[in-house]
Amino acid sequence: MTLMSVENVGFAYGSGRRVLEDVSFAVPRGANVGLVGESGSGKSTLLRLMLGLDSPQQGQILFDGAPLEARDRTFIQGYRKRVQAVFQDPYSSLNPAHRIGRIVSEPLRSLKVPGDHRKMAEEAITSVGLSADTLDRFPHQFSGGQRQRIAIARAIVARPELVLADEAVSALDLSTRVRVVDLFQEISERMTMIFVSHDMGVVAALCDQMVVLDRGRIVEAGATAEILRNPQHAYTQSLLASIPRMPEGPVTP
Ligand SMILES: Nc1ncnc2c1ncn2[C@@H]1O[C@H](COP(=O)(O)OP(=O)(O)OP(=O)(O)O)[C@@H](O)[C@H]1O
Fold first, then answer.
1. The sheet that has 58-63: what strands, in order across it?
2. Would you say residue 246 lies in a domain?
3. How does pLDDT run across 107-119, given as a tens digit for each residue?
C-alpha cells in the first residue's frame, strides 16, 4: 500500500525558474526509498514539500491518500505526528542550552502526546544505543555520531509512520557514518523511510528503491539493486562511477 505519493509536482522559488518539474513517485508503506542527485538537483526542495513546509505550484503530494495542505495548520499539526525528519548537521540541530531529555521529548510536548514522556524518551534513547542517563546531559558532552543518534531518537520518539532523513550521515566521519548507517538500517525495518542523499553509497546500503533527480527532473527510478546493476541513464552511471567503493549492504549485487 502506498504511504506517500508525489504526483506531477512542479515548484519554483518565487518568480524564479522551476527547480522541480513533473516529479512523480510513490513510497510504499514499510519501504526505504532513496532520493539521490547532485548538489542543486532539487532534493532539499522536494523534502521541504514532502514535510509540508511549502506547497507545490503544480501537482500534489498525498500522504495516506490525503493531499498535504501546507497552509492548513490543523492538517499540518496532525501530519507532524505522523512524519518526522532528521537533518544533516547534528551540531546545529540540538539546542545547546537544553538537556538531552528535554530535546528528545520535545515532539511529545509539542504534539501533546499523552503518557509518561520521560519513559518514552528513555525508550527512544536506548533504542539508538545510548544509555538512559544520556537524558540528563547536554549536547556538548557528546560526539557528532552520538548527537546524530540523539537527533534520531527525537525523530522516532513519537512513533511516526514516516521518517525523512536529509543527508543525515554526510557530516559524520567515515567510521561514525558506518555505525549510524547500521542504526538507520535497524530502525528502517520498523518504519517507512525516505533518505535524501547525494551519496549513492549510503542509498545503496539502506534503500530498496531509489529515485534519481537531475536538475529537478526524475531521470531514473526503481529497485535499487536493479539500478545499480544496470543504470540506464548517463547521469546515474556518472553518479555510480563517483562512488569509490560500494559499502557492504543488502542490495549489493
Ligand atoms: N530559498 C531558495 N530560493 C531560491 N532558490 C533556491 C532556494 N533554495 C534552493 N534554491 C535553488 O533550487 C535549486 C535546487 O536546490 P536544492 O537545495 O533543492 O537542491 P539539492 O539537490 O538539495 O542540493 P544540495 O545537495 O546542495 O542541498 C537550486 O538551483 C537552488 O539554487
1. 18-28, 2-12, 58-63, 66-67
2. no
3. 999 888 999 999 9
